[in-house]
User: Fold this.
Amino acid sequence: MRQLEIAKGVYDVGVTDWNIRDFHGYSTYSGTTYNAFLVTDEKIALIDTVKKEFADQLIENISRIVDPKKIDYVISNHTEMDHSGSLPRIMHRVGEDKPLFCSKMGEKNLARHFSQKWNYRPVGTGDELNLGKRTLTFLETRMLHWPDSMFTYLKEDKILFSSDAFGQHYAGPERFDDMMGDAIMPHAKKYFANIMMLYSPLILKLVETVTSLGLQFNMICPDHGILWRKDPGKIINAYVKWSRQEDNEKKAVIVYDTMWHSTEIMAEAIMSGLTEEGIYVRPMKLRECHRSDIITEVLDAKAVIVGSPTLNNGLYPTVSDFLTYMKGLKPQNKIGAAFGSYGWSGESVKLVQEELTAMKFQTVDSGLKIQYMPDKAGIEKCEAFGRKIGQAVKG
Amino acid sequence: MDKYVCMICGYVYDPQAGDPDNGVKAGTKFKDLPDDWVCPVCGADKDSFEKEE
Ligand SMILES: [Fe+2]
Ligand SMILES: [Fe+2]
Ligand SMILES: [Zn+2]
Assistant:
């Protein structure tokens, strides 16, 4: 049970998924929440639903405030199933003919996910829905992070319901930013890095639009994690900083895997070289660290150094996995470098190098490969390689 | 020269600007884009584009 009045007549009726540890391939060590909101006025609107398996809890939460049949309007800010999965159950309870507001793309996408012929009311930026004393305004936010994504803004109370944007996969007793201070920021950062990073240019544009419209926020309510009420500006500023990816820290992430420790020994020696140059280094072995945690470290690092052994004339599989994942998220303004140990053929370093180049990373070296175990001279080469990258990081 | 809009994400292809990040020179007409060109924002293919009114 979790219904909470977040402003007069506005309730959070969402649910907490305490035990989820893998959210479509994103590691969620603290679980997550699916937030949904009920705005009660002369008319009653429900904003978003929750994952399918939590439909009963959502209905129970709503029922403690109002009979679900009394809901006049349902709003779907985003089609992804963690927010729309309970729509069939909700529409059934609320009334199949009740208006369902979503973006134009939302109508298309909901129709593809669910076969029901709902009473769709597609809306675009600036369209309004009057609830009596209060008004909801819609703002299309295509590709933040799906084609159907939109925000809903409660004008009189200045509350933004921002769908996935500004969210965090965090489940805890706290429901607001002021209840946990900076401790929420690593969760927000991980969410940005894994879900939003590739749309950085659109985020910067959106912030510009919102500023030019003069929109102000007393509260920002995302669909995951805590709600920003003490300082909504803090998460907006963080998004601007993360989206720019300009003022990256003097930090390097060494992402690698290893079979018989040779590539790992290289990683350690490269780390020494970087450290000598005063660079903050995070070595992360792929079979131990989750790709979603590595990407979080990549977000504000200046250099990404990728090490792969050569296995069967190719890349080590976890390295391919990571490179595919990183490529999709389009990190900007990075320095890249490749290294790895090999037995006889040694293709991996070249393959990593090609991938990094394709991602428009600035490569500072043609890559470092060492046959079998690095000897003393090999270790020195690795350290020099680390220093060279360190100097490039310092610019 | 006509601009084309991505029906998935709203990106507008402007021939005057081209798409230099993806190897398309300024001044390239939409119909002259290579068949494997995709929307630089959402990855949709050329068929997802319509002429801007
Ligand atoms: Fe989503
Ligand atoms: Fe979500
Ligand atoms: Zn597009």
User: Anything to note?
Assistant: The interface with chain B takes residues 105, 140, 142-143, 147, 199, 201-202 of chain A (CB under 8 Å). The two ends of chain A are 53 Å apart (CA to CA).
